[in-house]
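Milestone M4 deliverable, item 7.
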Amino acid sequence: MPGTAFWVFLTLVVGVLIVYLSFLRQVERTVDKTTGTVDKVIDTAKGAAVGLVKLFQPQEVIKTFHEWRELTVASGTGSHLEIATAEASERFSRTTSFEVFGKALPMSTSVSEITVPATYRFHIDLNDEWNLTSDGKRLVVRAPRVRPTLPVAFDTGRVEKKTSSGWVRWDAEDDLAELEKGITGELSIRAADPNTIAKIGDEGRIAVARFVRTWLLTREAWGDGRFEEIVVIFEGEENSPDVLPETLRFEAGEEVLP
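Output delivered:
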């Protein structure tokens, strides 16, 4: 049948093309390995030269170890109050395949995966708008919006990487590198996600309540028995006075967590 013959022909053409490209890739790797061997020889020669320097010019070696790179320092705003941290093992994956007419070729799929131990930090800006109102012995604090501290920090020494690919693929390492480039941006997106911020809400309220109580104490505005409860609501949260979140209570001056 003409249709079947066309697909058989197309499959043969694609197969020949893949084999040819694989051959070119193998040649490139061979050249890279050869270059690496030459580089090792050069490095060995450099090592010998350094040894001679130590014998005949020790002052040059000492000077090398005393080099110092000046730091570039910028002052912070001083207005950020960190209210919560959260640690998570974040996993990122990337899957690519060769396609012909919208269909993936067999054994052409490459899967890359990176696991990152990330530390998320969240803060509020003290320069934003605050509102404190009293309701009997309850102090209601309407605090600024919670924001993620960016970029998200992660431990590069504990990053885990793995990749797998079909036999017709030779660019698995390139896929892995491409995935790694986007990690910082992806972590920022996850940090700013409302669901993420909601998960640290309770801990954040407690931190703000403690901050407010300390601030009132320094101004002698707390007083014995003046307040028995501090309720914190962040900007953007929808709460009516009847369903205020229980944040921090005090009995005989001592904290009682909800």
